[in-house]
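Dear Dr. H.,

I hope your travels went smoothly. While you were away I took the liberty of generating a structure for the chain from your last submission, since the lab meeting agenda had it listed for discussion. I wanted you to have the full record in hand beforehand rather than looking at slides cold. The sequence, exactly as received, is reproduced here:
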Amino acid sequence: MSRNTELAQIHIAKKQLGLDEETYRLMLHNITGKNSTKEMTINERYKVLAHLHKVGFKPKTKKSYSKITNWRKPRIAKIVALWCVLFDAKIVKDKSYAAMENWCSTLTGKDSLNWSTANDLNKCIEGLKSWCNREGIKHD
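The corresponding predicted structure, in token form, is as follows:
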């Protein structure tokens, strides 16, 4: 963690825990013997952060993203829906996601739909629509 990140976390913790200036400075002095974070060594900043965590500081984590980013979800959902239509019509023998993804990988050359580009996903959708049309299956 960089010096600036450590300093920022200490000041965020101060605000999150509602410490007034006097209490904050007294805490710093009790932990490190210094009244300012700018004067502290890396070890002293870690001691302050450890104490702040101990008394209830919870840093906010960055938002985690699902394996499938938002722009892929509707396209993959359409592929799944078309695959299920073909399964229900008894054209496809295996309804599993793995089987569908395997079929898609023959078109895209990618092992996972999560790694596919928009063009790859659209190619799969159009391929499944064409398959439905050849079999005379309504797919909308």
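Two observations you may find useful: The chain has two domains: 3-54, 73-135. The mean pLDDT is 88.

With kind regards,
E. W.
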